[in-house]
Amino acid sequence: MRYAKASDTHSALSYLPDFRGVSSQEDIEDRFYASAKMIMQSYKLVRQGSCWDISALELYLYHPAIWCDPSTHATRFSNDQQLDWGTWYVHRNTSPAPNRSGLDITAGFPSERISAGLLVAALGEKDGSATALKAIVRFDRPYSFVRRDRWSADEKKTLCEINHESIEVGILRLCERETAQETPLFIGPRKRLGKSVPEKFRNAHLRMATRRWPTSPNMVSFSPRG
Predict the structure, then answer these.
(1) Which residues are registered as beta bridge partners of 63?
(2) Rounded distance, CA 56 to CA 187, Å?
């Protein structure tokens, strides 16, 4: 399986998917699955002594020759940050409200105009990319859902400190576990893609998770292709 290169073989950077030279949708899926499996089973998210299990990742990829997915932020918002590799991408520089926010691990290659983001789609038992980012910023403190929730000035400062930073340094990091978790894995379509997204992209199995939620009924058990 092809990964992008990093100097330390135990570095999370060494397990990011490399989408250069992909030849098909199957190839894209296989590279994503290998990377997502490694990240979810062998790494945890850490911020100032708090840690979380990543329990779902979704791939958003724009490859100009093979996979022109209109749901990537490079296409929807002309945002170039998914061209980066190995950094945190706080969606649209903190402009969305908390209930519409999200966080990606970037895996792009600007020289080939490949934009890629692995969306942190769930943490632990809590599904949802916005819920995940709120948990990271607010340290999982109990709170009621607020329809018109807004980031405070201090929370925006935290988001800016996370944005663009390497996934291995700074206030938010991916840290290797002492022992990898042998969790079950499931794959299925990404969540909440509107009908304006062509069926080819909407139905692609580009979500991998360590559990099933009622909100994701179309997930199936993962089995690597022979």
Answers:
(1) 67
(2) 9
pLDDT digits 0-9 by tens, 156-192: 999 999 999 999 998 999 999 999 999 999 999 999 8
Strands 43-47 and 173-176, by their bridges, are: antiparallel
- 153 touches 177 (CB < 8 A): no
Q: Where are the alpha helices (DSSP H) in 24-82?
A: 25-42, 73-76
Predicted structure pTM score: 0.92
- Pairing of β 50-52 and β 54-63: unpaired
Alpha carbon distance 129, 98 (integer Å): 10
The CA distances from residue 219 to 157, 173, 212, in Å, are 36, 28, 7
pLDDT value for 147: 75
CA separation for the pair 15, 2 (Å, rounded):
9
